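hiii so my PI (J.) wants the whole complex modelled not just the main chain, which honestly fair. so below is everything: two entries, each one labled with what it is. i double checked the lines twice but i was tired so who knows lol
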Amino acid sequence: MTTDTRHTDTWAAAPAGGRAGFAALAALTAAALVGALYMVFLYAPREREMGEVQRIFYFHVASAWLAMVAFAVVFAGSILYLWRGRLRFDRWAAAAAEIGVLFTTIVLVTGPLWARPVWNTWWTWDPRLTSSLILWLMYLVYLVLRGSLPESPRMRQFSAVYAVVAFADIPIVFFSIRWWRSMHPVVVSGQGMNLEPEMVHTLIASCVAFTLLFALLFRMRLGIEWARLEAQRLRRILLERE
Amino acid sequence: MSILRLAAWVAWKDLRLELRTRQNFLTTLLFAFIVIVVFNFAFDPGSRAARESAPAILWVAFLFAGILSLANAFATEREEGCMLGLLLAPVPRGVIFLGKFLANLAFQTAMEALILPIFVVFFDVRFAGGFLPFLLVVLLVNVGFIAVGTLFSAMTMGLRLREVLLPILLFPVIVPVVIAGVKATALLLQAPAASGWIPWVRLLAGFDLIFVVVCYAVFRYVVEEAA
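here's the output for the full assembly
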């Protein structure tokens, strides 16, 4: 382990792919999202008991999926940062955490919108709802921790440690579901909510579209971060010349 | 010397310091006592609501007092530059974590041992499910809570916002511990003895195992930068 890289605030190269790669990713994501919208509203059949409101489920689950992908990236970036000490890995974690918190917020908003007509209540302390809320809180706190420290190896190291602890906590929070009585439909095991094949296709399509959306947002966020560091570097050079 | 023996030396240093000043321990104890007293006013004495909320009140008192104590766990090291001395000791960083963890665990358990009789008297609770299982639950909650708490306490020791940051960092992570502690305690206090507390003990044991290992492993990243 080299300690020198921990103290460099520079970032060697712009995010990979270049302008053409970015445009291709953006176009692909847009197409996938339009396709997913088509499937959600026109392809998937109307749910017999819940009616049209059930269609929110496709974006609710896809958002939850995206958030999980994002939190996995936060963990990967944090582990890599602790191991290698490269600024870039820290920025991966930060970018993914912001996206993860955003989409967990969407999960927490779309859930009650669906639950109100179906469960006849906005919010219950159902375990899965509760775990989503706790997850949301943990990564919000991660961002607060980042914000409360000045940019330094210490800030990066502390937030990486917190991210590792938070990620290790996720399975325990979710395992507790098994010992709580849940009224949340268990979609993955196929019980509770019987999905038609068309519904499964739609769910897969919206998850794919949201995965692409994550890649796009992540890439954009890193691009902004790179531009910010580059601007800082240029400003330093200019100040030295004066 | 084995790792545990070395850790015991670090813990002994903290215990001896506390035995001489008693400052942190007594304020923490007083705080837990006040929480229990103040919560009494929230319910009609002897009512069903008071009885049903008793486990939650007990754990709120234990955990809030514990956080107060944890917030100061590294303050003494920080003040006189002792942390540097501790870090210069020819031991792995994990040993320092274990020592601090053991000392905090001892403070927390001692505080709880003194608060518990007061709680039993004020809330008139009976341990229908047995007192030993309850002790097991308390010990398991303490291990998980103090392990993560010690790590975050080391992290926040030098920060301006440490009094606020420590609870904010700690509470979301220890939510499984809080739920398991309160649920298991409620089941053990139930009048016809219930056996549902065993899964919660398993959950607590799993949490403890994972987080003692994780916190031990990542502690060095925290102190290297904090010192």
